[in-house]
């Protein structure tokens, strides 16, 4: 659900099932209600503070504006951006010709496969260039990197020389989210995807 709805959802959960006990964990906050209903809220931004009311803290965690880098990659297109909350501060996108698969056999199939591989490599190189231009200048300020599209394609781009800091363990990574082929509109709407709050409910909830 959108972050802005979490506070109201928590109030409704308590009204329907009774005030829940909270069980904070490093990656989720579990709510256990008197009637047996449970809900596990995924903590994409890390553990909650020990001293805070977990229900207040989780709302604060998901609604707080954060600086997030975005990278969406498929073989034929890419989009890169920097977001402050829902607001895009910078962004680039590009499309590339990558030949489709062929049913031809033998030597022709090998020739098509090599051509497709070369085209894919150029596509990923172009994406890496935009990543270096848009994301690297902000890497020390980023709270997370949100990725979308094809996981193998994203990993291939981030493996390009010079982008090691974006793939470092110290930068939290959100995704990889399934989205349409990236373009300006898909990039602009990406915060509605990566900022969603994930809640897992049991059968009583």
What would your notes on this structure say?
With 205 residues, this protein is of the alpha+beta class. It has helices at residues 6-17, 54-63, 106-134, 151-158, 184-188, 191-194; strands spanning 21-24, 28-32, 38-42, 67-74, 77-84, 87-95, 144-149, 173-177, 199-201. A five-stranded mixed sheet has the order 6-5-4-7-8. Strand 7 (144-149), helix 4 and strand 8 (173-177) form a beta-alpha-beta unit. The chain is elongated, with a radius of gyration of 21 Å. The relative contact order is 0.19.
Can you tag this structure with a few keywords?
alpha+beta, single chain, 205 residues, elongated, 33% helix
Radius of gyration: 21 Å
Q: Taking strands numbered 1, 2, ... along the chain, how are they ordered across the largest sheet?
A: 6-5-4-7-8
Question: What would the average pLDDT be, to the nearest integer?
Answer: 90
Main sheet makeup: 5 strands, mixed
Low-confidence stretches: none
Cα-to-Cα separation, first versus last residue: 16 Å
| Helix content range | 25-40%
What is the total tally of β strands?
Answer: 9
Compact summary:
This protein is of the alpha+beta class.
Strand and helix map with partners:
Elements: H1 6-17, E1 21-24, E2 28-32, E3 38-42, H2 54-63, E4 67-74, E5 77-84, E6 87-95, H3 106-134, E7 144-149, H4 151-158, E8 173-177, H5 184-188, H6 191-194, E9 199-201
Parallel strand pairs: 4-7, 7-8
Antiparallel strand pairs: 1-2, 2-3, 3-9, 4-5, 5-6
Helix pairs in contact: 3-4
């Amino acid at each position: 659900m959108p972050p802005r709805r979490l506070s109201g959802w928590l109030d409704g959960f308590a009204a329907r099932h009774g005030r829940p006990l909270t069980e904070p964990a490093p990656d989720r906050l579990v709510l256990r209600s008197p009637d047996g209903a449970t809900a596990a809220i995924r903590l994409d931004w890390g553990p909650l503070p020990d001293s805070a009311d977990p229900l207040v803290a989780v709302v604060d965690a998901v609604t707080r504006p954060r600086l997030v880098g975005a990278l969406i990659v498929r073989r034929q297109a890419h989009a890169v951006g920097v977001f402050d909350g829902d607001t895009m501060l910078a962004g680039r996108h590009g499309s590339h010709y990558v030949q489709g698969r062929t049913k031809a056999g033998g030597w022709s199939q090998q020739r098509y496969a090599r051509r497709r591989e070369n085209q894919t490599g150029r596509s990923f190189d172009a994406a890496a260039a935009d990543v270096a231009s848009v994301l690297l200048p902000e890497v020390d300020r980023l709270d997370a990197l949100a990725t979308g599209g094809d996981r193998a394609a994203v990993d291939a781009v981030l493996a390009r020389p010079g982008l090691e800091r974006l793939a470092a363990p110290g930068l939290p990574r959100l995704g990889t989210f399934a989205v349409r082929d990236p373009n300006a509109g898909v990039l602009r709407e990406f915060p509605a995807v990566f900022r969603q709050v994930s809640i897992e409910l049991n059968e009583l909830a």
